[in-house]
Amino acid sequence: MKGKELLEIENIELKLLIEGIYLRYGYDFKNYTKSHLKRRVLRRVKLDDLKTITELTEKMLYDREVLKQILLDLSINVTEMFRFPIFFKDLRENVIPLLKTYPSINIWHAGCSTGEEVISMAILLKEEGLLNRVKIYATDINKKVLDIAKEGIYSIEDVKKWTKNYQEAGGKKSFSDYYIAKYDHAIFDQDLLKNVTFLEHNLVIDKTFIDANLIICRNVLIYFNKELQNQVLELFEESLIPGGIIGIGSKENLRFTSVNEKFENITAATKIYKKKIGC
User: Fold this and answer.
1) For residue 115, what pLDDT is reported?
2) Going by C-beta distance under 8 Å and a sequence separation of 6 or more, which residues neighbour residue 41?
């Protein structure tokens, strides 16, 4: 079979897999970028020692455990604590003063993955005296990564690397004050998670569930096509109170989206935006 023909067949197989996931289980990946989907699916085919995507589709339709693995594969779980430190520094300097004007604060951390950025936010809020006034709703499509996030336990080697991020983000203490080292793991203070609620939430099909003062969703939109980006951004805009803040990834932008006119930029470099009053 020639390369072009094989490529066409794989594209058809991928389309049938995505349709099967939606019809059988209700998860909608139709508007995710095809390159990301195909790369992850073909990796799963190889790891499971299968010959084609069609074989994977058949297994998925009859076995929910296979579906769970595919969901894990398709989820975006590249993260770290205080990732892109200047983002957290800008939160500390430009967003925290705004949050301090509210008696209570709702923060939605969408696509929270394994929780590293949620704990980063909790540390920042604790240092700024806000943690006890905040409710954080950390959501992801994938239950398995949420279970990891709830534990707050990470590789000690990774945590050592993240110490520099914490310092560059304007950390006020020693990073090691927030965790206990045990063997090759770091166990973070559970007090940081006392006001965090972890929830399964599908940005594609689920609706708004809180009035948020702040939404963090970083490096998720880049995996969606334009139509789905607009759909999700409209969900976020609807979820934010007037004057609410949204922070997105460094490679993402609100320009040329359906919600652009409803936001003003707080910090251009770190993609933090404020919802206009009256919107």
Assistant:
1) 96
2) 14, 17, 53, 56, 70, 73, 74
* Amino acid letter, residue 3: G
- What tokens were used for 232? 């999700």
Structure tokens at 164: 């520099």
Mean pLDDT of the chain: 93
Would you state the structure tokens that stand for residue 100, as one six-digit string? Answer: 């301090």
* Token pair for 148: 């990891």
Q: What is the pLDDT of residue 2?
A: 63
d(CA 154, CA 187): 7
pLDDT tens readout for residues 137-174: 999 988 889 999 999 999 999 999 999 999 999 999 99
Residue whose C-alpha is closest to residue 152's, from 102, 186, 113: 186
Can you tell me which residue has the tokens 């569930």? 209
Residue carrying structure tokens 């983002």: 87
Predicted TM-score (pTM) of this structure: 0.85
Name the one residue in this structure whose structure tokens are 């800008």. 90
β partners of residue 113: none
pLDDT in tens, 67-114: 989 988 887 667 899 999 999 999 999 999 999 999 999 999 999 999
**Alpha carbons 85 and 279: distance in angstroms, whole number:** 30
Where do we find the tokens 């604790």?
A: 126
Residue 31 CA to residue 229 CA, distance in Å, equals 9
Cα end-to-end distance, the chain, whole Å = 56
Record the tokens describing residue 57, joined without a space.
Answer: 């589709």
Task: Tell me if 218 sits within 8 A of 248, measured CB to CB.
Answer: yes
Half-sphere exposure of 82 (CA within 13 A, CB side): 24
